Recover the amino acids of this structure.
């Protein structure tokens, strides 16, 4: 386990002073040792290392080489606690199979199997290394880095300070040194690892696309990170794939998307990263439901539970984001003098959002989640791991190819969705029933998206129509939830149905006075009525003969 603190060094003068100082918080610093380091970060073309929850680095220094596998985790302020496996290797040994036996060699080979490692990016560092001691006890290594990162033709340079505990150092030692650097030297915590710094540089130069979610058949190096499309491409399925192989490809595709956006959640407050990670988790859960009759479900069940837990961890902060995103649109439409009308609500929302984010990050840093990612990554890299026997107990061939099974799957899902017709048409339809329809409509939409590559071009129109239905019903459900939350706030002054947690707390005996919130509740109720009134028009498009003809056309040729 590596435990280290990272800080931003703001300028060269501060860098120089830290290089020359003799003591920090009473700890003695050894004379400076100058080092020139070249790091290469590597992964397979399919990003198997990242998919397993690690980054992998090869370091060349003074004619020697070392290899390091680091777990992906977030920072607690300036402090990182992460799994680290490291070994020294002969400089001429480039392939893991050539390395001497070690835990890092075993883990890397387990992750990449027969795949080759390719370069993601290079990092050069002029480092000043100083040992930190308290009496006879060597407690930490302090390094000052003048770092340069290359991403294609782009480069980024910055100064940083790291303090890594040695075996004799304690968390109390680190806390004391961190407090000194923060309070006396006024250094700001560095929340981004070197890998995150590169990823930020890549995003800056190529704001669209996804460098880590490459399709399973792509065999290219980091130069492949050049997609300019802001949309997720289709999963690379083939008509002759077995359904268990289609399941593996689909899950692996969205698993990489999940990991990619997990890093975005940790390194930024951009709410779209959380949205995109949740979308990836939802797609994987939908894929498990879709393929459950065509895979060994007993082998998949533990992963279904892990995805369910992950989805639950992401749900609350994402729902809070959606609530305020729509609330902000409402505020933007108000006159300037009314912009503060929802301030009491915003303060309660911010507290709830911070609690939800902390709980989410705690889950993402948990051993349970890390183990889930490792096991799922290993499982998804083995074709046939979830395959069922090709013959039935009677010795008859079982339909299992995409071209044979997909039409049945599609029509069954559409039938299940359209069965709601008599329950959602007419006056006074309960919003809860429409929410159930929304869930039923997700299944054919996701199926069309998963298999888009093997279907006719008409599938794009089908996806568009189903997305329109889902968006309408999603806005309707958001209005229902928002109305409930606003009523609770006006009644209790709390978020949702929160009740006093301790004997010392008292529930409000009277409703709070918040005319701005009351006006917003009216606006959400008006929106809810509009969505209910216009739903029949949207639903009629799905029930129309034109939609049925699109389905038949999309499936032609299977």
């Amino acid at each position: 386990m590596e435990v280290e603190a990272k800080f931003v060094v703001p300028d060269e003068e501060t860098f120089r002073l830290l290089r020359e100082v003799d003591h920090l918080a009473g700890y003695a610093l050894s004379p400076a040792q100058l080092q020139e380091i070249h790091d290469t970060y590597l992964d397979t073309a399919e990003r198997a290392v990242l998919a397993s929850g690690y980054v992998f680095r090869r370091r060349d220094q003074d004619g020697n080489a070392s290899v390091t596998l680091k777990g992906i985790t977030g920072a607690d302020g300036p402090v990182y606690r992460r799994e680290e496996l490291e070994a020294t290797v002969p400089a001429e040994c480039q392939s893991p199979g050539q390395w001497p036996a070690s835990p890092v060699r075993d883990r890397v080979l387990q992750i990449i199997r027969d795949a080759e490692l390719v370069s993601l990016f290079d990092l050069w560092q002029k480092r000043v290394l100083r040992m930190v001691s308290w009496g006879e006890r060597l407690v930490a290594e302090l390094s000052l880095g003048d770092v340069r990162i290359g991403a294609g033709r782009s480069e980024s340079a910055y100064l940083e300070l790291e303090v890594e505990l040695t075996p004799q150092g304690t968390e109390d030692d680190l806390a004391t040194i961190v407090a000194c650097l923060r309070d006396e030297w006024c250094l700001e915590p560095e929340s981004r690892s070197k890998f995150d710094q590169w990823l930020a540089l890549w995003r800056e130069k190529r704001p669209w696309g996804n460098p880590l979610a490459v399709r399973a058949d792509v065999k290219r190096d980091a130069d492949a990170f050049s997609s300019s499309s802001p949309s997720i491409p289709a999963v690379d399925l083939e008509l002759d794939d077995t359904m268990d192989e289609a399941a593996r490809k689909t899950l692996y595709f969205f698993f990489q998307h999940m990991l990619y956006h997990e890093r975005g959640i940790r390194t930024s407050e951009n709410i779209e990263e959380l949205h995109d990670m949740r979308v990836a988790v939802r797609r994987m859960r939908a894929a498990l439901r879709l393929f459950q009759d065509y895979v060994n479900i007993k082998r998949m069940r533990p992963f279904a539970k892990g995805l369910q837990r992950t989805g639950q961890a992401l749900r609350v902060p994402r729902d809070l984001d959606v609530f305020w995103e729509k609330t902000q649109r409402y505020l933007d439409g108000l006159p300037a003098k009314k912009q503060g009308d929802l301030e009491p609500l915003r303060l309660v929302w911010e507290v709830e959002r911070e609690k939800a984010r902390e709980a989410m990050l705690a889950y993402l840093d948990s051993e349970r989640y890390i183990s889930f990612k490792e096991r799922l990554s290993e499982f998804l890299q083995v074709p046939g791991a979830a395959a069922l026997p090709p013959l039935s107990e009677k010795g008859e061939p079982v339909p299992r190819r995409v071209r044979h099974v997909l039409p049945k799957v599609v029509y069954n899902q559409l039938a299940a969705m359209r069965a709601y017709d008599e329950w959602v048409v007419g006056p006074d339809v309960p919003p809860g029933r429409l929410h159930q329809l929304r869930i039923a409509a997700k299944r054919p939409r996701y199926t069309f998206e998963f298999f888009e590559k093997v279907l006719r071009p008409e599938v794009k129109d089908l996806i568009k129509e189903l997305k329109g239905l889902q968006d309408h019903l999603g806005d309707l459900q958001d209005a229902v939830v928002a109305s409930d939350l606003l009523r609770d706030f006006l009644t209790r002054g709390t978020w949702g149905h929160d009740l006093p947690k301790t004997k010392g707390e008292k529930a409000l005996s009277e409703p709070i006075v918040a005319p701005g919130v009351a006006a917003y509740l009216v606006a959400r109720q008006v929106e809810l009525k509009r969505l209910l009134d216009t739903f029949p028009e949207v639903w009629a498009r799905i029930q129309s003969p034109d939609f049925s003809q699109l389905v038949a056309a999309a499936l032609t040729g299977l």
